[in-house]
Amino acid sequence: MKDDTKLTHAGRHPHENHGAVNTPVYHASTILFPTLADFDSRDRKYVYGRKGTPTTSTLEEAVSALEQAHGTVLAPSGLAAVTTTLMSFVQAGGHVLLTDSTYFPTRKFASGLLARLGIEAEYYDPLIGNGIEALIRPNTNLIWMESPGSLTFEMQDVPAIVAAAKKHGVPTAIDNTWSGGYFFKPLTLGVDVSVQAATKYIVGHSDAMLGTIACNQAAYPKVLDTFLQQGNCAGPDDVYLGTRGLRTMAVRMNRQHENGIKMAEWLRDRPEVIRVMHPALPEDPGHEIWKRDFTGASGLFGFVVDCTDRAALGAMLDGLALFGMGASWGGYESLILPSDPSKMRSATKWEAGGTTLRMHVGLEDTADLIDDLTAGFDRLNSARR
């Protein structure tokens, strides 16, 4: 089946739920067993609410189908999915390689809890490709990727990194949130684990916290065991919202692909903009990798404005009517947020020459978004005269 069909049908079992099209929300902790023999054997799919219900199974099956995974674990947030994955592979005295462009809370976890456990985190240039082989040590537990990278959108050569990792028997994992698992299939390229903040494109409506960990056959038992030992579980209402969002993700992401490229092209021609970071643009340094490995682009990208005056930036951003300022993305609405990636780097430098902004383009008409930003740039120019 094609992805659009998978998103519509995968994980649905109406006739196991009295014909209901959508799997109901099971609020459950205790699961009853009819006999002592049944209790002793535990020979059934559902034995305790924390370990899953039909509600969680529906989304797990659907994400596994989408990402072509052996199995999927649902986490209560995107960060919980990241930390569970890292904890599934690290060992005391171990070493992990993380892309320097990674999501900042991932970096904080590595420099915080992992460091306290005696695990060394080393950051590498996201453009390293097969050069990563020189950084692999005998005690390297995991290589962590994110493509494109948070805030600065560098594309990683995932197949080259995976090939080097496999040569040395090192597992690999990737934050695949930007693609939604729809535009990019890292497990088909040999990556062991694909993590998403399902809060973003899977939920799609900015109203639930959720993470997904899609695993190949070798990684799944390790991840599931770590997840259960930590006592994690995703709430049934959030899981239900994730499933409902997943059903329309293809329509939303294809629209956001188109809207994002239109906005990136428009921004590229604005005199206030120094550069646009969007891998679907032909001039982007990562465009060839994106074109090779991805089938589309989400609505999230970055650009740099030729202004560092916070008052002038405030005049621009505070008056926007259609772009909200918020730290998340992936919903139906457009967002914009200033950032300073230079404070989040150690292996590379980010020298933008202006203020870096991250934009998420939603489902609005791009003509209205352009009008809103045009007025914002007018306010910016007036404020810095």
TrEMBL record:
GO biological process assignments: L-cysteine catabolic process to pyruvate; transsulfuration
Key words of the record: Lyase, Pyridoxal phosphate
Listed GO MF terms: cysteine-S-conjugate beta-lyase activity; pyridoxal phosphate binding
Bias-annotated ranges (Basic and acidic residues): 1-18
Sites of N6-(pyridoxal phosphate)lysine modification: K200
Presence of the UniProt keyword Lyase in the record: yes
Region (Disordered): 1-21
InterPro entries xrefs: Cys/Met-Metab_PyrdxlP-dep_enz, Cys_b_lyase_bac, Cys_met_metab_PP, PyrdxlP-dep_Trfase, PyrdxlP-dep_Trfase_major, PyrdxlP-dep_Trfase_small
Catalytic activity as recorded in UniProt: L,L-cystathionine + H2O = L-homocysteine + pyruvate + NH4(+); an S-substituted L-cysteine + H2O = a thiol + pyruvate + NH4(+)
EC annotation from Swiss-Prot or TrEMBL: 4.4.1.8
Pathway(s) per entry: Amino-acid biosynthesis; L-methionine biosynthesis via de novo pathway; L-homocysteine from L-cystathionine: step 1/1
Signal peptide: none
Cofactor: pyridoxal 5'-phosphate
Entry keyword annotation includes Lipoprotein: no
Family: Belongs to the trans-sulfuration enzymes family.
Full protein name: Cystathionine beta-lyase
The species this protein was found in: Hwanghaeella grinnelliae
